[in-house]
Amino acid sequence: MQEQVAVQTDVRPPLFSGSALRRLIIPLVIEQFLAMTIGMADTMMVTSVGEHAVSGVSLVDNISILLINIFSALATGGAVVAAQYLGSRDEPNACAAAKQLFYAIAALSTAMMAVCLLFREPILRLVFGTLDDDVMTAAMTYFLLTSISYPFLAVYNAGAALFRSMGNSKVSMFASLLMNIVNIGLNAVLIYGVGIGVAGAGFGTLASRLVGALLMTWLICQPHNPIHISGLFRPELQNQLVKKILRIGVPNGMENGMFQVGKLMVLGLVTPLGTSATAANAIANSVAAMVNVPGNAVSLSLITVVGQCMGAGDSRQAVGYTRKLMTIVYLSMGALSLSLFFAAGPVVSFFGLTPAAARMAVEVLRWCSVFTAVFWPMSFVLPNALRAAGDARFTMIVSMFSMWVFRVGFSYLLVPYIGLLGVWIAMFIDWVLRTAVFLFRFLRGRWKTKTVI
């Protein structure tokens, strides 16, 4: 039977033309850049308040990323299921899966919002230990406002993932642009005009996510879309579809969640090094994230491309498109990494750090540029091809093992001797392990035997 399928796929026309891939990926690159600027706008605009504000916003963002990754994982599960149904030409089930995704992600994000609102101070102290009073005050204020925004962000993520699964990434790009305009505009008014500091950044983030959620909900309910939701406010539970979504979303969520927990533990090693180290780490992470924008965009596109290929029963095209897209990632990220290596100093100078913090940020960014160019794509882009095929459990096991043994373990070993740089070197070791294992898995082809629908 497998031989018959292989023969059939040899004569199938390409599922995605070159122009179709460009229409998918280019808006995703712009969207990812815009998504990065929301966090960077908050960080850069609160630098006028002081390093304690930068540190407070950064610490909360690390907790928020934990929850956002869980939302994104669930959205990815829904997008994989929807993309595979589209690939098999089963639009009714694709629409039904979209509706179940919206219900699940709204319920989960509301529960997480409630927990964070009730226990935000204990959470901050548990994760980061003893903080300077001014840093804690800033973090508490920002955490309150961003917690309220979690359900809105989750709904936006679900809608964006579904539009991407249709191959329509322009919708999420324009929505992200609108969110940035709202966020930066309110930040400017509230931070510089009204003068409410960190609270201004929090209100800007909250308002932008509310706008994004409302827009995405309205768009996904339009019946002309291949995937759309009818009767959103008439709840109905379809257990089999929910199970399919969770089969991808739960392992991916556990992977992302435990990954971020490990990062928070590592960050707990950074905060005792002082406010300068914490601020340098925050700025370096923000700048490094910009280099990852092309990789993140292609990673999202792999969900659509590989998902539809596997739904159509064509693993040959899934392999071909993955190799093509990985080549694009290496070329684009290689160029950006090279630029960052030489421009790290001028880039860091824009953030107004103290000389000590600036020196640390430049050092880790130059190290990061080298390892990003070589190992990051295989560590974080290639696994999405495996997930889109249904191989989420394997990626979860590898990622969690590598995170805890190498990144967390080596951080505890290295930080006492070389400070902030030790955290980053431990991260690079983690990337090397992931690259070796994920590349081996892809080349062996076991992921092709997985089923989702």
UniProtKB/TrEMBL annotation:
Sorted alphabetically, the Gene Ontology cellular component annotations on this record are: plasma membrane
Q: Does the keyword Transmembrane apply?
A: yes
Give its localization: Cell membrane
User: One Pfam match, by short name?
Assistant: MatE
One GO term of the biological process aspect: monoatomic ion transport
Gene Ontology terms, MF aspect: antiporter activity; xenobiotic transmembrane transporter activity
Q: According to Swiss-Prot or TrEMBL, what is its membrane topology?
A: Multi-pass membrane protein
The UniProt entry, under InterPro entries, shows:
MATE_fam (IPR002528), MATE_MdtK (IPR050222), MdtK-like (IPR048279)
- Membrane-spanning residues: 24-45, 65-88, 100-120, 140-163, 175-195, 264-284, 325-344, 364-382, 394-415, 421-443
Task: Give the record's keywords alphabetically.
Answer: Antiport, Cell membrane, Ion transport, Membrane, Transmembrane, Transmembrane helix, Transport
**Protein family membership:** Belongs to the multi antimicrobial extrusion (MATE) (TC 2.A.66.1) family.
**Record-given protein name:** Probable multidrug resistance protein NorM
Which species is this UniProt entry from? Intestinimonas butyriciproducens
